[in-house]
Amino acid sequence: MSSTEQIQDRLKQDYDAGFVTDIEQDFAPPGLSEDIIRFISAKKEEPDWLLEYRLKAYRLWTTMTEPTWAKVKVASVDYQKISYYAAPKEGPKSLDEVDPEILETFEKLGIPLHERAALAGVAVDAVFDSVSVATTFKGKLGEMGVIFCSFSEAVAEHPELIKKYLGSVVPSTDNFYAALNAAVFTDGSFVYIPKGVKCPMELSTYFRINAANTGQFERTLIIADEGSHVSYLEGCTAPMRDENQLHAAVVELVAHKDAEIKYSTVQNWYPGNKDGVGGIYNFVTKRGLCEGERSKISWTQVETGSSITWKYPSCILKGDYSVGEFFSVAISNNYQQADTGTKMIHLGKGTKSTIVSKGITAGHGQQTYRGQVRIGKNADNARNYTQCDSLLLGDSCGAHTIPYVEVKNKSATLEHEATTSKIGEDQLFYCRQRGLSEEDAVNLIVNGFCKEVLKELPMEFAVEAQKLLEVSLEGAVG
Amino acid sequence: MLSIKNLHATADGKSILKGINLEIPAGEVHAIMGPNGSGKSTLSHVLAGRDGYEITEGEVIFDGDSLLDKKPEDRARAGVFLAFQYPVELPGVSNVYFLKAALNAIRKSRGEDPLDAMDFMKLAREKAKLVELDEGLVKRAVNAGFSGGEKKRNEIFQMAMLEPKLAILDETDSGLDIDALATVSKGVNALRDKARSMLIITHYQRLLDYIVPDVVHVLVNGQIARTGDKELAKELESKGYADYTGRAVS
Q1: Is residue A424 scored above 70 in pLDDT?
Q2: Taking CA atoms, what residue in B is nearest to A450?
Q3: Which end of chain A is less congested by CB atoms within 10 angstroms, N or C?
């Protein structure tokens, strides 16, 4: 059998997380209007200022159009057919009260809240559709002054922080999806690390889209005050459905002087079936502000899911000597499309950024790395290093690299390296001649290719990411 | 150990092997010499199961089993090892990780327990000494940034780790300076064993000064033209292949 036939033959992958949990839900009727926004806001018992914030964003959104510059083919989204609010009917008060079926869902995803969280030392804020159902380890974190809670809770309990920071990094005017999110976001996570505190454990949120025909619009805000450290991981899965579902999240990070935020994502939204039917539209705006001197923000992402990914986790390096990093592994198999990359905006003196992007395409996958490095006129001695590598499996996929560079200060140093390679027949044969099966050989080569990025992930998630790569590429041998 | 009968193979419709007959008993070292394009490397690829060749006639029996209908990994697990003429780079995949995966795949196929990391490293250190491969190289990505000599030493190191029944050395001497050649040969000689057969494919007699073969075959135009002892190699060195090809070889 030729390798092309082998690819065709074995490009069958089952989506392990594709099950639907059968519980009663509270829906908003489909469609988007000021009334719906009032409904969401009322459901969440929000203060007036937040309702106003939403309405303002909504009015702005109605004047905006979807961006079309990304190298992806998107079926048009009917925003009036989406239900913008879905929450389990009974609000749980503690973990014991959480619907067993919901817990089972998490169990299937491999995140039993009770044991694993404790064993791994991970505090999990699990978002089930729109409402945060369980937050663990809150007490322990609370002793150190760390706030880790659902966004709704933060609105109620820490309104001054929300008011101060909401939209400060990603304003609702930023783009179409950010405006939509600002209007309709339902929940998400909030983290505040006080001055000088090194968060003693990895904070983690699992997002999951369950209800059919609902978009998920979560909002995450992480504030690291002076000299603090935090590592945060989000993992995402969604059940299998024929229709496409929209996911338009906004993540904002703020790192003050000498603070460090490490944000890791393992994204495994349903990618659609092997013919490209169904799957999540993952249109996300993630941005971090290195506000203070010597602050650091590091994005690490492993993107294996979604039918379409449109995502550019970025850093604004405002503080002098601040550091931005972006490490990415993205896989596009079957008919998946990804247009992803980062923006590094250097404003302060001596700012430094590193971009390492590893793209893997198989089947009919299409992938674009789109990156922007901007050096402002006051950013003396700024440095950037960019490396974009693409690995192709088979003959029907495509990889594209689109770097934008804008330099307004002559003292800047920029390096850019890019490679595109195919998994060679000779590499596969070499591995097989040493006794490895073809599939193990592909996994070995892919893992080697991604190593620089995988090693950036927190230990306990590196293993998970590695497994995910294997599942995502099952059968994509060639 | 290895029995090749009337083996014919084509690549892209072009006939390359045209009826090879070869018997290698256990414990013997056979050399195959021949001019460029005679089919030496094709023979090694066909035995290891590389894609891109069609077997049109003949059979190969290895250790009592037909070899040609097996997948490459199954041949490796059965004990066939090919030292590549051009060892392949695997960026980001560490040599030890690669070899541990390979060794344990082979052990598993034999129903043996996998070696744990401690035992494996102990074995690796011991075997690396055979070819004077320093620990730095052992831990680096497979062949990535290795010099020509280091790549070849790494091949022999892998062979030492995997302990094959049949080792095929495809132009292992190419690209080696005289010191590296001596080191590599020393490693190969240390692996000579009454239970292990070797097939050494080379263009030059030079290698056979170091690894002295039991039998020498001359491969010309896809067929074994002559078989003799180690003196045959010396004769070829002085006279070239002109007697067999009808033209002088520089």
Answers
A1: yes
A2: B92
A3: N
